[in-house]
Hints:
Elements lengths: L5 E12 L4 E10 L10 E7 L2 E6 L9 E7 L5 H8 L5 E8 L11 E7 L3 H13 L6 E7 L8 H10 L3 E7 L9 E2 L2 H8 L6 E7 L1 H13 L7 E5 L2
Parallel strand pairs: 7-8, 7-11, 8-9, 9-10, 11-12
Antiparallel strand pairs: 1-2, 1-6, 2-5, 3-4, 3-6
Helix pairs in contact: 4-5
Amino acid sequence: MAEKPRECTACVADVRWLTRDVIEVDLAMIDPKALSFEAGQWVSVPFGPKIVRPYTIASSPLRPRVLTLSADVVPGGIGSRWFRELAPGATVGFKGPTGGFVFHRSDPRRVLFVAEEIGIVPIRSIVTELYETGFGRPATLVSWGRDPGTLVYDGEFRSLARRYPGFAYVPVVREPGGGWSGDKGEAHDAVDRLVSSVADLVAYVSGGGETINRVRQVLVAKGLDRKAVKWEKFW
């Protein structure tokens, strides 16, 4: 069970560029020394009395002493500038955890994850924890991007699919370019092709509002109850 949201302090342990647009930051917890959270939740970073930005935790709850945050810095706003300026050793404050985009492993339904670019972050936390803790049921992840360079954690998920036969990873891009080994098109089209039956299915969709709506429309048209589509809107 995750803690109630609380004020937290952490130290920047490492900063990495994952793609041309995405920065990943490791935060070593100071107070509390470890933060209990559920995979898929986020923390809030304050930038003023009325300015707060949410950032989803990309790491697994099994590592509560060091949280990993990932952010697309292309928007160029106050949060993007903050991420770009972070450096090892800096102290940061935030509040968390918050959010209900979490997967309950007691749910017996087949699970389909669909992510659009940076929307992969909560799903990465969920999937990582599931397979670190012996999740034995099949799961499918459709990860969509404009081009291969926008697929965050692509190599990690390809590796996971090789190690766990029950995990199916379907990378999809709009503009594949040369040497692409994956699907081509839009996220909702890939879901339409992949899902032949919605019986006992639950879907977790994360990304932009348009993609969420289109994926939901495809699944509902196949007979899935709208309540069986969980979503996390990033923009």
